[in-house]
Amino acid sequence: MGSFHRKGNVMNQAPSMRAIVITKHGEPEVLCEERRPIPTAAPGTVVVRVRAFGVNHAEAFFRRGLWGDVAKVTGIECVGEVHASYDGKLTKGQRVFALMGGMGRAIDGSYAEFTAVPAAHVIPIQSALPWTELAALPESYATAWVFLHQNLEVHASQVLVVRGGTSALGQAAINLARGLDVRVLATTRSADKARLLEALGAEVLLESPNLAEVVRRKVPAGVDAVMDIVGSTTLLDSFKMVRYRGRVAHAGFLGGLAPITLDPLTQMPSGMQFSFFASAFAFGSSELPLSEIPFADFIAGVERGAYRARPAHVFDFEQIVEAHRLMESGQARGKIVVRGAGES
């Protein structure tokens, strides 16, 4: 747990909580622990006792300052219990998911003992699964579900390519797509991760600059859909994989945040449909209320063993620096989860 340390800043207000804050923009070591006041429930908010939270690449971008000024306490999702509900619609102790709604970006997020979240972004759940297993689900599975059902509209017997298949989002998409009886081709950069994808029911493709040629040899007419989690470095190649009226969805930035230059006339196949989905801004909106996302189905799928969704790595609260290092190393092989402060 070496490089993590608690910053000696104990605030006078009581009661207080443990929180991990971004002390300045930079490497994982800028994440330090402080004492902060426990938030109170204001109109339209719910205070959640954080029992575990997932670690996401967005939080690395926040930490590095790549998305401008953000909240000092980062974290875009968590699982836990209701501590206080302003309107009383949720009872104290009720198990919940909390995600997005400005968490970690506009408001303090989940890297703390307690977090105050807009009520529309708090989802009551019922499950006896361990907190760490539940924490692997909210953001990844909700985002994958939207891409499959809305952006790509995949259905049984179709062929889907998941580019970035060993990521947490990629594995969630494979699980959900196989549950729809969709044929899945999934990519990885290293051959030693092939078994992971095969265990999920996917056909393995090794990433390459001209992967479309490999895909076209497997599916000469072109695949029905591509979910590209790598992003700007692979999108133009992904366009070449799909059939006429096929769909490509830009789903992530594993390859970096660099913009791309696109000439539709020469680089977009005729009839192809291209889309993007920004979960941070869409979830909980009037167009996409979280009540439309079948969180109970995700939990049920894990409980009955239909989805292989356990976290790839679980860290203690004090090991947040190590968790971020692993995420950015590209060696995580799935979802990284952190236990809440005081959890064991």
N- to C-terminal separation?
A: 15 Å
Overall strand count: 15
Assigned CATH class of the largest domain: Alpha Beta
Number of helices: 11
Percentage of β-strand residues: 25-35%
CATH architecture designation of the largest domain: Alpha-Beta Complex
The largest sheet is: 7 strands, mixed
Stretches where pLDDT falls below 50 for ≥5 residues? none
Brief rundown of the structure:
The chain is α/β, with parallel strands linked by helices and 344 residues long.
Task: Summarize the topology.
Elements: E1 16-22, E2 31-37, E3 45-55, H1 57-64, E4 77-85, E5 95-99, E6 114-118, E7 122-124, H2 131-134, H3 138-151, E8 159-163, H4 168-179, E9 183-188, H5 194-199, E10 203-206, H6 211-218, E11 223-228, H7 235-239, E12 242-250, H8 264-267, E13 273-276, H9 279-282, H10 295-303, E14 313-315, H11 320-329, E15 336-339
Parallel strand pairs: 8-9, 8-11, 9-10, 11-12, 12-13, 14-15
Antiparallel strand pairs: 1-2, 3-4, 3-6, 3-15, 4-5, 5-7
Helix pairs in contact: 3-4
